Amino acid sequence: MRVLIIKMSSMGDIIHTLPALTDATKAVSNIQFDWVVEEGFTEIPKWHKQVQKIIPIALRRWRKNICRGIQNGEIKQFYTQLRAQEYDFVLDAQGSIKSAITTRLSRGCRLGMDKSSVRESLAYLAYQRRFSVPWQQHAIKRIRQLFAEALKYPLPETLPDYGINIRNVSQAKIELPKDYLIFIPNTSCSVKLWPNHSWSLLIEEITRQGVDVFIPWGNENERKNANQLTSKNSLAHVLPYLSLNEMAAVLANAKAVVAVDTGLSHLSAALGIPTIVLYGPTDPLLIGTIGSSQLHIKMAENGNSIQDSDTTVLKKIIDNLQHFLTL
After folding, report:
1. Are 127 and 179 found together in one domain?
2. Number of domains comprising the chain
3. Edge-to-edge, what's the strand order for the sheet holding 129-131?
4. Is residue 33 located within the same domain as residue 60?
5. Quick one: 118 and 244 in the same domain?
6. 44 and 119 housed in the same domain
7. Does the bond joining 10 to the residue before it have cis omega, within 30 degrees of 0?
8. Which domain, by its residues, includes 288?
9. Could you list the pLDDT tens digit for every one of the 327 residues in the chain?
10. Are both 181 and 136 inside the same structural domain?
11. Which residues make Cβ contacts (< 8 Å) with residue 80, sequence separation at least 6?
């Protein structure tokens, strides 16, 4: 059986889909997957051994200049790749208008969520078979349920298995100490941010104990912010720009991670790394990280960012980090 998965973005949503592939692989003999995914996230599906072919889509970039995408042939090339194979099933695991259109353009029996379950209501019209997947459950469980119903096997009661083959992850060409922590203060959604003052206090306290801290970044503003947080501390470092493969390798060898709610926090959890995640407007019961040694701290909001932490929260983070460092 060959199945095309339509799950284009975002990073966290793509990672949430991996356990469903593991379920299906165990339940359905000889199943293979291809995957349509945004060009910036093509590395993620490759980590799962059951994914055979990646079909990149550059929708985010094409939206900025659709004429260029047509003129340079990129859109035609994507359409050709999408139509090259006739699949047993095409499964839209995103439920948005853009994913539904992509599903409709593909070749194969089209599966997706019903009208009350999709993210954008009109998306259900693209599917030939539709399934009810209740909203009030974790995103990973929703996708596992969708796959189980669509591909006709019992929904497993086991903990999610992301199926990431660490051998498929490229090692970053940087030298790192034996024991280190990763702090992730940056995210594209401003209301999820934790004030720099709080990060500075945390960095100061942890590095005082002789532990190295590394901060990743994804754009120039994030790099500047990381430099600001590390500039006066010899044990706090800004990582060079890394691909997702390289970032996964750095996370996989960290003792622990502290992060706001962002894609890299889900990647850390998927790799089995102890992770402390600070949540503001998002609900960890619905989209929180799932993995071994995960701590979710629900913070109050002030409208623009997560409110500054009190000493109790800071102490909780530090105490847990000290525990993770001994593992």
Report:
1. no
2. 2
3. 51-57, 32-38, 2-6, 87-92, 108-113, 129-131
4. yes
5. no
6. yes
7. yes
8. 170-325
9. 999 999 999 999 999 999 999 999 999 999 999 999 999 999 999 999 999 999 999 999 999 998 889 999 999 999 999 999 999 999 999 999 999 999 999 999 999 999 999 999 999 999 999 999 999 999 999 999 999 999 999 999 999 999 998 877 877 789 999 999 999 999 988 889 999 999 999 999 999 999 999 999 999 999 999 999 999 999 999 999 999 999 999 999 999 999 999 999 999 999 999 999 999 889 999 999 999 999 999 987 665 566 655 678 899 999 999 999 988
10. no
11. none
- Three-state DSSP at 29 gives coil
Q: Residue length, the chain?
A: 327
* CB 203 within 8 Å of CB 229: yes
- E strand residue ranges, 114-192: 129-131, 180-184
Judgement on whether residues 148 and 201 belong to the same structural domain of the protein: no
| SS3 of residue 153 by DSSP | coil
Residue partners of 280: CB distance under 8 A and separation at least 6: 191, 192, 260, 261, 299, 300, 301, 305, 306
Residues 7 and 148 in one domain: yes
Last residue of a domain, one of 114, 147, 167: 167
Which of 130, 73, 125 has the alpha carbon at shortest distance from 101? 125
Both 96 and 193 in one domain: the answer is no
